[in-house]
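Input/output pair, single chain:
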Amino acid sequence: MARSVKKGPFVDLHLVKRVRAMLESGEKRVVKTWSRRSTILPQFVGLTFGVYNGKKFIPVNVTEEMVGHKLGEFSPTRTFHGHSGDRKGKVETAGAAAPAAPAPAPKGK
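Output:
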């Protein structure tokens, strides 16, 4: 369910403080954060966040199109390796390397 407009976007306070300090100092470095639930604000555009996915920090370069989304949307937590049925079908078709010979043409009268 979406957050009400009256409340405004949610951003962790410690994250806002770190971004403000970085913008005031003028330095550009990766801001490591565990706050996947924070909404991306217009002030974040151009910065790089290291968003934790449960195993490592994924670098996320913020662009204008990302404003309004959550940081966690750009740091996947699961790795998809494919469906087991797909692998089984590929193994069987890989064994038949050469195509079958074409069928002989029917003899006409």
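The longest strand covers residues 48-52. The radius of gyration is 26 Å.
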